[in-house]
Amino acid sequence: MTNRIVIADDDRSNLKMAERILTFNGYEVICLGSGEELLDYVEKDHADLILLDVHMEGIDGFETMKRLKRSKTGRNIPVIFLTADDDSDTETKALLAGAMDFVGKPFVASVLLMRVRHTLELIRLQSDLKAEVSERTKEALAEHEKNERLSLQVVQTLAGTIDAKDTYTNGHSARVAKYAKEIARRYGFTEKDQEEIYMLGLLHDVGKIGVEDTIINKKSKLTDVEYDKIKEHPVVGYKILKNITEMPKLAIGARWHHERYDGNGYPDGLKGEDIPTEARIIAVADAYDAMSSKRSYHSIYAQEFIRNELMSCKGTQFDPVFADIMLEIIDEDKDYLLRELEAQTAAGTASLETGDDDMVFTFLSTLEAGGINTAIGMKYCVNDVDFYIEMLSEFTSGSGERKLTLDNALKERNWEKYRIHVHSLKSSARTIGAAALSELAKSIEKEAANANETYVINNHASLIAMLKSVHSSVLMALAITGHSGL
Questions:
Q1: Burial of 227 (0-12, 13-18, 19+ CB in 10 A)
Q2: What CATH number has the domain spanning 4-107?
């Protein structure tokens, strides 16, 4: 079933950007222009997830969230806040208001998708766990009371983690759970124990939701301090899960999946068979998925490379018995299907690979000559020239309205209205790579928030002049592609 995502944002380019990214990746998307429209929508129709802008005319995101929580139809819909603010106070306020996560603007496609997938996966995980516990209660009346307590404790524990952020999963936990279950099956686990280790695999990395996303997604080498932060996640996960007394092995999987067979792992330095069996299985499954999936610090490794790594680490990093079972699974996977597929990446670069190279070069060079950083714009448009052209057209088509709105707000001395619209300009300009315009809008936004009339008045003309310049540069480049941008 396709998930329906409702986006409420008063900036058309932001709506278009988010809609394109999410629709391309298989989601049904509903775009709305205000908090009021969102509240009306949830009274009449359903949403699996809401993306809610913080700064909007009319009722802002925080007030909209407050009213959603009072609504019978909207109170249980998960919400991710959107904003171009770069201060931690806004993020903290958003999470305290009840948001499940927070995404900065302009959108980075991979981050937006990761946050959306994580939130939906977490909601699904809660639902699946409740359904699984409900099913178990039907198996034997003698276990009814026990499973009711399990259901309650699992839901309460997961609910306690919802406000934290986890940008790592992207299907990782589900794959680790699947691999761990298959290793356990081949090793001789009963069906009941296989299901148990599957659940352990789903929750093995739950502690990572307490690690800063900048550390988890860092492409360069981690500092010692950052690595120490990463190494805290098994203990954090253990603390989250240890209170589920009816299923204590959940905490075991979370705490000890980074122990090494030779005793050089963490957090406790356990060695050999002192490491719980389930944790030794999950360690192999976790390592396989880490190598066969795209990460911020590496691409998907070849199957033969992964096989060699497992072979060389048998008896040191991994329990040799479970490493051998994983190697059997790899050898049977002739078409290398047990991996994270790269369809999204391939699709994102298709336009560049199949388009007219000369025209693309001329188009991007014209933008660069006009002071636009196309590397930034292409990044936000997932390296898709056609998508970039769409966003540039969207920007120019709304430039006249932006100028008029800002002029009127200045004339009325309505600094809050001015702040909201210059905030929107900051984000949209950044999305297309107009970095200088974005930076100027950012500084004016800050002073407008402080009602510094002098600064806003003195810089308004420069802002409008720069907006016009960007507008003209984009129109010139778009003419090369046959787009008017009007």
A1: exposed
A2: 3.40.50.2300
Nearest C-alpha neighbor of 485 from the set 412, 409, 414, 395: 395
78: Cβ contacts below 8 Å, ≥ 6 apart: 48, 49, 50, 100, 119, 120, 123
Pair 442, 426: CB distance under 8 Å: yes
pTM beyond 0.70 = no
Distances (CA, A) of 87 to 92, 94, 324, 338, 421: 9, 12, 49, 40, 18
Looking at residue 129, what is its pLDDT?
61
Instruction: Report yes or no: 420 and 56 within 8 Å, Cβ to Cβ.
Output: yes
- On the question of pLDDT at 314 being above 80, the answer is yes
Let me know if domain 351-477 sits in CATH 1.20.120.160.
yes
**Sole residue written with tokens 């299901």:** 195
User: What Rg do the C-alpha atoms of the chain give, in angstroms?
Assistant: 25
Six token digits for residue 175: 């794959």
**How far apart are the C-alpha atoms of 439 and 437, rounded to whole Å?**
5
Ordered by start, the domain boundaries in the chain are: 4-107, 110-332, 351-477
**C-alpha–C-alpha distance, residues 285 and 143, integer Å:** 31
3-state secondary structure of 77: coil
Q: Can you tell me the distance from the alpha carbon of 456 to that of 466, in angstroms, rounded to the nearest whole number?
A: 15
SS3 category, 318? strand
Give which of 357, 402, 369 is closest to 474, Cα–Cα: 369
Alpha carbon distance 457, 185 (integer Å): 71
Quickly tell me which residue has 């240890």 as its tokens: 242
Sign of the CA dihedral 348, 354, 355, 357? positive
User: Is 60 exceeded by the pLDDT of residue 167?
Assistant: no
- Token output for 422: 């210059």
